[in-house]
Amino acid sequence: MNTLLQGELVRLVAASAEKDAELLAQWSRDSEYARLLDSDPAHPQSVRRAKEDIQKWMENESPDNFGFMIRTLADDRLIGFVGLDGIRWTHGDTFVGIGIGDPEYRGNGYGTDAMRVILRYAFTELNLHRVSLDVFEYNPRAIRSYEKAGFVVEGRQRQALNRDGRRWDVIYMGILREEWERQQER
Amino acid sequence: MNTPLFEGELIRLTPPDPDRDAETESMWTHDVEYMRMLSADPVRPLSPALIKKKYEEAEKEKATHRYHFAIRTRADDRLVGFVRLDHIEWNNGASQVTLGVGDPNDRGRGFGAEALKLILRYAFAELNLHRVTADTHEYNERALRFLERAGFVVEVRRRQAVHRDGKRWDVIKLGLLREEYKP
């Protein structure tokens, strides 16, 4: 019961606006990271703004958002965040967002591990029916990671992004409770 | 340049006027079928006061990211529905459209189709957007046909994302690109 928030490489912990804002602001200066994360114009964030964001998304007790920081088990290093937001309780549906801010920890299974932990949280603690996400066509590493965690592609919003002078699709993925359960039996 | 943007043959798009319209809109929210077609939020009748409050809150959003119109008949200036473009991402030229015709007796009379035509022209010829997204639910076949007739293409099926009357239904997301849009 005590390992709900712990994976093989990482654990999920509460965010602290005071302690974590500086690192988050630093990550936001990495335009590659910003463009992988969301469709807003990449824009470096001040520490003050990062603090406000943490307070808004992670330190509040909104019943519809569950945000965590990701720390490595090996050396307790803060490498990213993961969170469920926009939970629709009547339908058991939620979106998940994840970012590995520390570039050294991308592509090494840390994000996939964190995703597996938050899926377990979504299905066995929040008892949701499905988890949804969207990801950008130019981010094949993330798509592979999500597929490893059990997500399947549910469609593509064509040309929904315009970056570096070309248009890219936004890819929607989802995992149902029954698919997640089958995966646990294997 | 003289294309009338807000005038159709049967209807026109006007600014919302909550003081005048809140009673009518409150009545619509008591129609379960209508509310379930419109949104995945739990159905909940809204009082005129709550409707007014929602309009006030929406006005706080950045005006350039949300364009909301009332649909009124040209014949007698009667409120029949609303249409809105929001979730506008200017950097990507992306947006989302939502449309509702409140009174069942006003559906199937071409009001919605004309309003959709006007809002799409507004999106592509005035706001110069690149694409418009529309969401609907699997059980709303009428909306699906309505959107496809206007040129929208099904792009995403979010499986079992809506749970209603004991059954799980897909959320269907459609899209229309600028190059596919036929004025």
N-to-C span of chain B = 14 Å
Tell me which oligomeric state these chains represent. heterodimer
What is the global morphology of chain A? globular
The residue fraction in helices of chain B comes out at 25-40%
**Secondary-structure element pattern of chain B, one letter each:** EHHHEEEHEHEE
Number of helices of chain B: 5
By secondary-structure content and strand pairing, the structural class of chain A works out as alpha+beta
Q: Give the termini separation of chain A.
A: 21 Å
The general outline of chain B is globular
Fraction of residues in β-strands of chain B = 25-35%
Count of beta strands of chain A: 7
- H/E series of chain A, N to C? EHHHEEEHEHEEH
Instruction: Bin the strand percentage of chain A.
Output: 25-35%
State mean pLDDT of chain A (0 to 100 scale).
Answer: 95
Strand line-up in the sheet with most strands of chain A? 1-2-3-4-5-7-6
Mean pLDDT over all positions of chain B: 95
Largest interface (C-beta under 8 Å)? A-B, 24 and 24 residues
Question: In total, how many beta strands of chain B?
Answer: 7
Rg result of chain A: 16 Å
Question: How does this model look, in words?
Answer:
The complex is a heterodimer of chains A (186) and B (183). Chain A is an alpha+beta fold and 186 residues long. Chain A has helices spanning 17-27, 31-37, 47-57, 110-125, 140-149, 177-185, and strands at residues 10-13, 66-72, 78-88, 93-100, 130-136, 152-163, 166-176. In chain A, strands 1-2-3-4-5-7-6 form a seven-stranded mixed beta sheet. Chain B is globular. Chain B is α+β, with helices and mostly antiparallel strands and 183 residues long. In chain B, strand 2 (67-73) and strand 3 (79-89) form a beta hairpin. Chain B has five helices and seven strands. Classes of the chains: A alpha+beta (186), B alpha+beta (183). The A-B interface holds A 39-41, 88, 90-93, 129-130, 132, 154-162, 167, 172, 174, 176 and B 40, 42, 89, 91-94, 130-131, 133, 154-163, 168, 173, 175, 177.
